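Re: duplicated header lines in exported structure tokens

Our pipeline writes sequence and tokens for each protein into one text file. With two proteins the header for the second block appears twice in some exports. Here is an export where it did not happen, for reference. First protein block:
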Amino acid sequence: MNKLALPIALIALIASVASFFYQQSSSELVYVDVNKLLEGYKRTAIIKSEFDEKAKTMKANVDSLIGSWQTELKAYEKERSDMSKKELELKQELLANKQQQINNYQQALQKQLVEEDKKVTQTVINDINDFVKEYGKKNGYKVIFGATGNGTIMYGEESADLTEVVLKELNAEFEGE
């Protein structure tokens, strides 16, 4: 009796695995290329443009401060031969303090830009994820995999790639069509 139990169990296991894969039709196992969705989503371009404009403005502010400091430095270099030792020390300290303030301001802005970039990128990713979830429900998919180009999906038949269809509908929804 024990000699039959193992082969029967193996046959049952093989049959159940085979039936699982048989029941999964190719239309139920689909994927989207997440990077293509991010790049092709029109909201991404709009948000990136707004972000780039804000970063450009912040950089212009820093450049203005640096230009002002450099002008002060050049004036100091011209006038230093006429200054007393005390005036030299005071002016050097003022210039060093101003340079440190500019550096601190620049670092704070860079940190703010990194945080804002993460925030807006996450917002776009959440939009895409929510859309794909609703798209999957609406179209009867059990699973929609997300390929990111780093090995999550090594191969998929072209017919299982929903990227272009999802991207088209995602952009249409964004534009209110």
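Second protein block, exported in the same file:
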Amino acid sequence: MTEPQLWQDVDDYFTGLLAPPDAVLSAALRDSDAAGLPRINVAPNQGKLLHLLAQLQGATRILEIGTLGGYSTIWLARALPQDGRLITLEYSERHAEVARSNLARAGLDKITEVRVGPALRSLEELAAEHPDPFDLVFIDADKVNNPHYVEWSLKLTRPGGLIVLDNVVRGGAVADAADDAPDVRGTRAALELFASHPRITATAVQTVGSKGYDGFALARVLP
């Protein structure tokens, strides 16, 4: 058995036991596929992790940067109380339409909002509204702008809030100083910001599974 197949088998075991599929999440994936969206959504067990992190935070306000078809959005929004709020930012109007449909079917359209446009512009507009601070931010968008997304997240998140940065391993390239690819440089810059910023304590974890070799970083915002 190859290593990738073993990773897949273990993920399937964990998912079947601890994050079994339900009709809403399965339909979200099915409709995303039908619309031709790329299959880059989080794995089910990773979605369950986001859900648990939001619950552990007692989150009432969540910000997501990178919506795709709304699969991770559903996981996060399901952790919110009835008066909670989740704002998710998506570059593509086509992706946003799929996500809105998936969120409505999940019964989450009243507590979620999908905003369309370049995320840096959307974040600037959001900050101008002086919103109540967020309890958790999930960053899963274009990697080039990761450090900027972290900087905005700091401005918009309460002390004690969490910032989750996805896809930080880049196939191991993040640790290769000779790799100058834009996505690697953006990810590395975000991690270096996590390491140096006086208001952040953070770690990063490598993962293997149905999404291959990857990982995420988790940061807590300090007072």
